Amino acid sequence: MKLFIFISLALITNLHSASFAQNNNPRSITQDDSLKIENTISKELEQLGDSLRVLDKFYLDEQFIEFKSDTFAIERRREMRMEINWSTAGMNNASYAAEREYDQLLNKYYQKLLGKLDDEDKEILRQSQRNWIRFRDSERDVNYMLTDWQYSGGGTIQTTINANHHLEITKHRVIELYRYLSRFM
C-alpha cells in the first residue's frame, strides 16, 4: 500500500511539473478554459463514481459517493484554475472560488441534515450553525489581523494565507455536516 501511495504521489508530482512547464506565464482564465475544466471534471467524476462503486460494492453508499464527487469537483476545479493562473492573484482567486463552492455545498448538506431531524431537534442544528457562522467570522477577523506587517512581516504571501484560511474553515464545516449526516442509518 505504501508503494502504491508513493508511486501515485510521484505521478501526480510529475504531472504538475509537466503542466507548469507548458504554462510558463500565468494568464487569466478564459471562458474556453472554464468549459474545458468542466468537461474534464465531468469525465473524471464518472470515472471516480465507477471506481468507487467497483472498489467496495457492499460498504459504500450513494451518499458517500455523492459527497466524494462533490468535494472532488471543487478541489479539482481549484487545482486546474491554479495550473492556468499560478500567480498570487490566480491562486487567491481559485481559493476564494473554491470557498464559495464549499459554502454552497455547506448549504446542501445542512439542508439534508435538517431534513433528517425531528422538528424539535432542528433548532439545535440551527443554533449550532449560527454559532459556527460567528466562529467563522471571528476567525476571519483574527486571520486578517495577523496579516498586518507588525505581526507577520507582510508580503503578498499573506493574501494567499488568508484565501486558504477562508477555504479551510468552510471546507471543515462541510465535512462536519457530512459526518453528522452519515451517522443516520
Automatic annotation (TrEMBL):
One of this protein's Pfam families, by short name? LprI
Q: Which UniProt keywords apply?
A: Signal
Cleaved signal peptide residues: 1-21
Q: Which Gene3D superfamilies match?
A: 1.20.1270.180
Q: Where is the Lysozyme inhibitor LprI-like N-terminal domain?
A: 87-177
Q: Entry's InterPro entries?
A: LprI-like_N
Q: Does the keyword Signal apply?
A: yes
Q: What is this protein called?
A: Lysozyme inhibitor LprI-like N-terminal domain-containing protein
